[in-house]
Design goal:
Elements: H1 5-27, H2 35-45, H3 52-63, H4 70-91, E1 100-101, E2 104-105, H5 107-110, H6 113-133, H7 138-152, H8 157-166, H9 174-200, H10 204-231, H11 234-237, H12 250-254, H13 256-275, H14 282-285
Antiparallel strand pairs: 1-2
Helix pairs in contact: 1-4, 2-6, 3-4, 3-9, 4-6, 7-9, 8-9, 9-10, 10-13
The structure holds geranylgeranyl diphosphate.
Geranylgeranyl diphosphate binds near residues 86, 89, 102 and 157.
Length: about 300
């Protein structure tokens, strides 16, 4: 009997999240020489994220029938180092000034601002160290590093964050909003798929379709995050929600119903790309069950 999408994703999470968490917990302290910094980096890394991004990379590897060795799981976990750095810095008083993340005090609340800044810096650089040490061959290592720098650097996630910080209180146009979200959130999600494609040596024609899936999954994630922010309580999502405000979100720009429609269409576009591939993409499709549409 064929497993449902939800069951496939649950099975993948059950198999891989403990391994990702175990590797991060064990390996990270080996790369930090100062105890306070090490505790601060580990505090945020071990705070219980969904591990969506490394799971996406590993799902691509599985789709290409690679066996998931500890060394490949460590390589995929690099994306969680970057993601966690971005959250620590985003929560700082100079940025979003949040007290709660993943249901726990933010890094600068649990430690102090200087330590939180350094923990972010440490996680960011550690990501590049781990990629450079991997055993996948120099050619792929350079590609992974090059693409990661583009995705999260000054024309990727950092640029998105800069636009966000500087547009507080200003109403962005639809195009500006799409650009902001795609840089700030989309780039790293898209990279998670791309990293898998680089490691698996995906042929060009397949890579194109899988990158279309990545683009649409990244966009769906952004729309869904805005919807969640609008409809959830702080207890449900473990971070402050901003129902009321003038923030630049899909929901504030399009309204809740249109945002759901946009999400639905974006999901359909991604599935259409996957359907054009002549191998089993059910595991990748299963990632759409992450979006709980509440029977809509
Ligand atoms: C500081 C350079 C720099 C960038 C920060 C990622 C980011 C850019 C800011 C985070 C603010 C935010 C709420 C963005 C929306 C999307 C997002 C990244 C949500 C959190 O990701 P999840 O849901 O979180 O995967 P978990 O906790 O599960 O890992």
């Amino acid at each position: 009997m064929k497993m449902s999408n939800q069951a496939l994703l649950n099975q993948l999470e059950k198999e891989l999240i403990p391994k990702i968490n175990g590797i991060l917990k064990q390996e990270l302290p080996l790369y930090v020489s100062d105890d306070k910094l090490s505790n601060s980096m580990s505090y945020s890394i071990n705070a219980g994220g969904k591990r969506l991004r490394p799971l996406l990379t590993l799902a691509i590897l599985k789709t290409y029938n690679l066996s998931l060795t500890d060394s490949l799981i460590k390589l995929a976990s690099v994306i969680e180092l970057i993601h966690t750095y971005s959250l620590i810095h985003d929560d700082l008083p100079a940025m979003d000034d949040d007290d709660l993340r993943r249901g726990k005090p933010t890094n600068h609340k649990a430690f102090d601002q200087a330590t939180a800044i350094l923990a972010g810096d440490g996680l960011l650089t550690l990501a590049f160290e781990w990629i450079s040490e991997s055993e996948i061959g120099e050619n792929k290592i350079v590609k992974l590093i090059n693409q990661l720098s583009e995705a999260v650097g000054a024309k990727g996630m950092v640029a998105g964050q800069s636009i966000d910080v500087n547009s507080a209180g200003k109403k962005l146009s639809k195009d500006e909003l799409i650009n902001l979200h795609s840089l700030k959130t989309g780039k790293l999600i898209i990279y998670s798929v791309k990293a898998g494609l680089i490691i698996s040596e995906s042929p060009d024609d397949e890579m194109q379709l899988l990158m279309k899936f990545a683009d649409s999954f990244g966009l769906a994630f952004q729309i869904y995050d805005d919807i969640l922010d609008a409809v959830s309580s702080e207890d449900e999502i473990g971070k402050p929600v901003h129902h009321d405000n003038d923030k630049n979100t899909y929901v504030n720009l399009y309204g809740i119903e249109k945002s759901y429609e946009l999400l639905d269409q974006t999901i359909k576009n991604g599935i259409e790309s996957l359907n054009q591939l002549d191998f089993d993409t059910d595991l990748l499709k299963s990632f759409y069950s992450y979006f709980d549409l509440n029977g809509r």
